Amino acid sequence: MNVLEQAISAIESGSVEHGLEQLAKLEKNADHQLKHDIAELYHELGHVEKAKKIIDELLMLYPDEGSLYAFAAELLIDMDEEDEAIEMLLEIKQEDPAFLQAQLLLADLYQMQSLDEVAEQKLLLAAQAAPNETIISYGLGEFYLERGDYIKSIPYLKKAVHASERLPNVHVELLLADAYSASGQFEDALEYYERGLKNHLDPNALFGYGFTAFQVGDMILAIEQLEALMALDPDYSSLYPYLAKAYEAEGRLDDAFETLERGMKIDEFNESLYIHAGKLSFKKQNPVEGETLLRKVIALNPSNVEAVQTLAAYLKHTESYEELLELMEHMREYGEEDSLYTWYGATALKEQDNYEKAYERYREIEEVYKDDIDFLEEYGYFLLEFGMRDQAIPKFKKVIEYQPDREDIVELLENL
């Protein structure tokens, strides 16, 4: 075992200080190649400044060696000196073997600085210089994927997939599956998720697989993948809404509700989970629980329109007009203005025979719902009941315009 190997062995066995002392002694009399190896080891150990000192010395001896510039740039990046790293990488000439590596590093650096167009130019330049280089195809595919240009990313990632054996520890198939899924090409996405997950079990990919299966309506496959994800990483909060919906679609209401309860324990501030659980409670004929869940959301966030509208619709359906009016008045007090809230308020006031206030509310939203058949019919009957026959007739005539086959309304108009 040579001295470098002894130093490495000492470090790996926990004798870090002793190993570093051996490296320092070895460095004094090392040849240039050995110094480079020591710099790499320092870099791996996190002693970036020591590595940089050696590489700077070597650069003075080999000013045309592109790999040294690339190594120095990596060290500068680790030292948060991105601008200096860019200057170093720009020194590498196109004919240098390290040129491709330099372009990839430059692209990463420019992306970090939100200079996406410049980053793209560097990657395209590298692709032009080496059109068959797998790492460049992968780099471009990943770049477009991260930027949200999913369609652009697909051909590059497909090209990289065909030579993925040259990319150890990179799971191109899963990235390609993400690109297909995000671009709406779900069937292709499912194929690559299946292939990729056989080689690498990844929580994000499992979610993507389950979500994509959900999108195409394959609830059995969605449940299978999302259950696997839940077993692998129960804290992956995004899985719970979709797993619950998949269970619900399969008629497994108890499993759906239990899934939402699990999700609420992990992501207790996710209002959509409570709303879904509330709706599911109504579906399971457990209205008390449903109302409790929805009121909990509203108490924490009166601005949650879905929670308010869901509860209001339930109260109207059950003819709980006093509670409906109370809810709508609370919304007004909170400053939550919504024309649908005003409509619910008008309905509740009408049913409590408070015609004057109900009329005010109907008038507030008359223009908003002038083409809504349900509103026109309700408002028309209210006007008749309130003794405003002449105002009611135009509302019913409008209903007939949209629904000429409404014989009940035709007969009502004839009588009027």
From TrEMBL:
<dbReference type="InterPro" id="IPR051012">
    <property type="entry name" value="CellSynth/LPSAsmb/PSIAsmb"/>
</dbReference>
<feature type="repeat" description="TPR">
    <location>
        <begin position="237"/>
        <end position="270"/>
    </location>
</feature>
<dbReference type="InterPro" id="IPR019734">
    <property type="entry name" value="TPR_rpt"/>
</dbReference>
<keyword id="KW-0677">Repeat</keyword>
<dbReference type="Pfam" id="PF13424">
    <property type="entry name" value="TPR_12"/>
</dbReference>
<protein>
    <submittedName>
        <fullName>Tetratricopeptide repeat protein</fullName>
    </submittedName>
</protein>
<dbReference type="Pfam" id="PF25058">
    <property type="entry name" value="ARM_TT21"/>
</dbReference>
<dbReference type="InterPro" id="IPR011990">
    <property type="entry name" value="TPR-like_helical_dom_sf"/>
</dbReference>
<keyword id="KW-0802">TPR repeat</keyword>
<feature type="repeat" description="TPR">
    <location>
        <begin position="373"/>
        <end position="406"/>
    </location>
</feature>
<feature type="repeat" description="TPR">
    <location>
        <begin position="203"/>
        <end position="236"/>
    </location>
</feature>
